[in-house]
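Help!! Second protein's tokens look totally different from the first
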Amino acid sequence: MVGNNSFKVGIYIRLSRDDGNIESDSIVSQRSLLNQYIKENNYNLIDEYVDDGFTGTNFERPSFKRMIKDIELGRINMIITKDMSRLGRDYIGTGELIEKYFPNNNVRYIAINDGIDTFIDNTSNDIAPFKAIMNDMYAKDISKKVKSSLHTRMKDGLYVSGRCPFGYMKDPNNKNHLVINEKQAETVRLIFDLALKGNTYHSIAQYLTDKKIKTPASYYNYVWNTKSIKGNTLSQEKGIWFDTTIRSILINQIYVGDTVQGKTKKINYKLKKTVKNNPKDYIIVENTHDAIIDRDTFNYVQTILPKNVKRPEKKRFYLLDGLLYCGDCKHRIIIRYQNKTRRSYTTCDYYRTYSKYHVCTTHTNNYEILEKVILEQIEEVCKKYLDKNKIKDSLGNITFEDNILKITKQIESLELTNNKLTQNLDKTYMDMLKGIIDEEQYLRISENLKQEIENNKLDIDNFQNEKINENTIDNKKIEKYIDEFLSLEKPTRELIINLVEKIYIYQDKKVDIIFTFKNVT
């Protein structure tokens, strides 16, 4: 039999937060037990590997990985733990180590309290797989209890996340309660104010960056990667604002004083990876802390976000940009300036991107003429709205729809479009296989299709949020906006987006204007 002195021993010690309250599992206790065992058996201790505060359900632990590296370098050929659960609680991974990895690398493994020694043929070794399963079940049970406890606290309105949302900080007297961080809250209010004026995510982000206003990441000592920002040498202290940051702030219900938690969940107790929950499964408790944004303002911002979300930044300003949609395919109508004619024209973006597939038609219009016609129609409706006796009169091509019904139709339309886009994606792949298009063309077309699908998913999310926060402008606000609109020779974009939800342009030149007013009967 091989002598004990021939073994180069590494002792492995692990303690997770879940079992940290058990004295016998403490780091000190494990170290003492293992060192005593080595002394009694006259083993040659080479190194000690300690993972303090790491779960046993996965093997992404720094000292464990160092131990594996030392095995492969030949520094150690024997591992000793207090019991199998210290090595790991994932029965598949632990079984792979004991049954395959250690034998393949000629490593002897001993779990003292479980009586396991892979160099000795005994009954304890035979039941090792069952012990691994029991350890796994224990970890699963602990995970369920922790999750249940967190859900209970969330439903009680207690804030349980580690990091506070931008604009808030934890109450010094109660870590589960939020209080306003006034300096950050000023920025939040500015962002909502800019959104109310019809600015896009990008233009708001650019404005804040230009003004060198600190980003949320700057407060958390996180450094944005600025390599992709051409020629931008802004200090890391101030940071760069991104569109996604602006959007996350504008749609976050936390700012009206409600605690919104449970937005994500882990795939299972063994993985750190999380997935997004359906908004209807969020845990929302109202009025748990002071609001930064009043509820009416927040709800109204949700109704105008889809109008600005994908408006590109252009050198030329168009009053109706972002409000125009194709009446036939329901995709956006874009506006382009032609240097040759020195005029601006509209075209269906879906047609422009996928003209090869004949999914729609051009919908070309002279923008200047179109804008004039639409403003005249808006003016006509505004005048009739102020005259309560005429409001029931026929309004020709001007369409009013109930907000919820309208949003539902838009979601259904986008989902239908995504199904068609997915079919086109499959068809494009088949075209490449048949040699109709080459690989370069396939990659270009498929990337465009995938981007369109993602954009539509973003629109669907926006509409879902709008549906949840559906809130119409009250009569006094409508009359205020209408009075301002009628008093100006050229209305502002802010006024337009307060009065108009969407404008549908059809190939036959018909125009349908969807107003923000409630359904008129």
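Here's the second one for comparison:
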Amino acid sequence: MELVIAIVCLAVGAGGTFAAMRSASNGRVREAETQVQQAQAQATQVIDDAQRQAETLKKEALLSAKEEIIQHRQAAEAEEKQRKRELRTLENRVMQREESLDRRNDALDKREHQLSSQAGQIDKRSREVEALYARQATELERIAELTRDEAHEELLDRVREDVTHEAATIIRDSEQRVRNECSKTAREIISLAIQRCAADHTAEVTVTSVHIPSDDLKGRIIGREGRNIRTFEQVSGVNLVIDDTPETVVLSSFDPVRRETARVALENLIADGRIHPARIEEMYHKASDLVQQRVREAGEEAAFDAGIHDLHPELVKTLGALRYRTSFGQNVLQHSIEVGELCAIMASELGVDSRSARRAGLLHDLGKAIDHEVEGPHAVIGADLARRYGEDPSIVHAIEAHHGDVDPSTVLAVLVQAADAISAARPGARRESAENYIKRLEKLEEISNSHNGVERTYAMQAGRELHVMVQPEKISDAQATVLAHDIAKQIEEEMEYPGQVRVVVIRESRAVDIAK
């Protein structure tokens, strides 16, 4: 097509040239006509060549398309033959499977017929066996002179005795094996922790005694119509008890920091000699600043000794307030330091991070500093306080779980529990009131006496050992082992006590005769 267009353009150009030449000179008309004829002849020749070439290309394209169609047709026929072969193969397999299933069904029918006949024989034999068993049971009852129920009861008694003996043997072997494997390591870790840690303890609880030079000062402290003592109690929030005790007045409050502030203020007033409402307020504010400074210093010193340098200032202040808090006569700040040391020692022995253990032990009793202001167990209060000031969740969990308010789920929480118990239970660490002591002993004896076969019980060594006397005709040696285990388990579930309680079951049998 491009060739045809070129030819046409050439012809048009030639015509234009011819017109120009005609207008320019009439003499050249013939020459121009000749050239035009030649150009037309050439154009005709080019058009004919282009048409022949187009026909040739068209024929070649048709041939190529026919060859491609033939190839596709051959491929389709080959694929169809392949699918037919595969279908024939599948049909053969299906026919073989059907023949196999038919043979299997025939075999199953034969087997079912055989089983039916055998089932009838089995039923017949079963009836014969039942009849024979009934005759034998009747004969055995006649020979043994026991009914079926009596024989069953006697057999159960024998089995029960055998099981009790085996259970006692298993318990004894298990306990011995556990002791052999664990006792030595536990004693080494705990004894090492206790040997490497010691702390001093004070005995103040909720009152503070202040010595005065003479009883004449009591009247000045009370003031005219009691105005001085009223002012002192209003400003300090502490009860000031003045009785017949010579040269002594008593400050009473559940807030240890406030009680300490009142003590410092009262001693400064006594030393100054000027006791009146204005002076009382002035001295109390000075004493409050001094005590708050001591609280911060105590908290910073405890954190520094424990190697903790990133403690929140509010936690440091709360920790320092434990300096004036006691629990069963044990100073809580010293107890916290001791628990931190014990946790670190045991953690290092067990391959746990000792820094986290020391931190958790030091902070475990934070709640005791504010438990007189906030309701709830001190473990939960301390955990909320630590959580509020950005302590790690593992530390918070250890604080919250150290008294069982939540179940401990980490090794760190268990270490804090153990260290707290060691620090509180070691001899001389804490005082116990006579009333609580007697109640604990009575509860131990009550639990022991509630078991069958127990004759009498003695709580010994301040309730740390329980001697249980049993009736030998009711309790065997094997049952004595089981009884000791049951009593110890019940004590663990129903009582709270420091340290551990050893249960000793004593079975004594005597044979007495008289020679005549």
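Reply: Different proteins will give different token patterns, so don't panic. DSSP finds 15 helices and eight strands in the chain.
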